[in-house]
Amino acid sequence: MRKIALMVAVLGALVLLAGCKVSGNPLPEGMEEETVLEQGREVVAMLNAGEWQEVYDLLRSDARETSSPETIQSYMEERLEKAKAYVKETEAMATGQKLKATGEEYGTAVIYCKHEKKSIMYRVAYSVDMELMGIEAKVQ
């Protein structure tokens, strides 16, 4: 059951983040790049500190329905096992996206981080109201 919940959470995050391109699209009107990046960096720091409940608490209500602190923990521990401890941020950008299903616009902080063994690309998605919509961590 836990594995199914994790898969649902990961698939939910991927659906939310589908189509995010590193080349970047403009952020939705009213969103500021520095704010999106600053908030994204805070989430990345929480993920690397093992603050699963805190990240879960930041998720907007629809994202909380398909996730839990335990699914976030399991998702991140799998990636951090491969990449090991966080070393430093190497690159960051903010990009705008649109959910295909609803047309909702959102902004994504794309943050590349060096870890001891491998790098991870973090995608942290926010609604135009700066509510956390989803996260993705992709080991490079």
What is the structure about, briefly put?
This protein has 140 residues and is α+β, with helices and mostly antiparallel strands.
Question: How many DSSP E strands?
Answer: 4
Largest sheet: 4 strands, antiparallel
Order of helices and strands: HHHHHEEEE
Class inferred from helices and paired strands: alpha+beta
Shape: globular
* SS field, number of helical segments: 5
Distance between the termini: 28 Å
Element layout with pairings:
Layout: H1 2-17, H2 33-48, H3 52-58, H4 61-64, H5 69-83, E1 86-98, E2 105-115, E3 119-127, E4 132-139
Helix pairs in contact: 1-5, 3-5
Tell me what you see in this structure.
Strand 3 and strand 4 (132-139) form a beta hairpin. Strands 1-2-3-4 form a four-stranded antiparallel β-sheet. 41% of the residues lie in helices and 29% in strands. The protein is an alpha+beta fold.
What would the keywords be for this entry?
alpha+beta; 140 residues; single chain; four-stranded antiparallel sheet; disordered N terminus; 41% helix; 5 helices
